[in-house]
C-alpha cells in the first residue's frame, strides 16, 4: 500500500505511513451483529411527511397518496424496511385533504350559482 501523501510503500496491514505518519487506512468499524438495522422505506417516509403537510396546509394531498401507495409496494417487496404505518398516514392524510378541497370547490361553485 502506498501513502497518498509522501508516495512511499508501506506494508498492507499498516494503518499509518511509517515515513510521514499519515493515516493510510482508517480503523475498521465493528457493527454488533445483534443490531437490528432496517433500511428505511423512503417512499413511506415521503408519504408521511406529505400527508402531515397536506393536513396542515392543504396543498400536497395527491402526492401524499401516490407516495403512500409506492411506500406500501416497497414494504411488500422489502418487508425488512417496514414503513406501512407511515404509508397509511400519508394515504389517509392526503385523501382527507383532497376530499376537503373537493368539498370546498363544490361549495364555492354552488354558492356562486345561487
UniProtKB/TrEMBL annotation:
This protein's source sits in the domain of life called: Bacteria
Q: Which residues form the Zinc-ribbon domain?
A: 2-23
Keywords, ordered alphabetically: Membrane, Transmembrane, Transmembrane helix
Provenance organism: Victivallis vadensis
- What is the protein name for this chain? Double zinc ribbon protein
Membrane-spanning segments:
46-66, 87-110
InterPro entries tied to this protein: Zinc_ribbon_dom
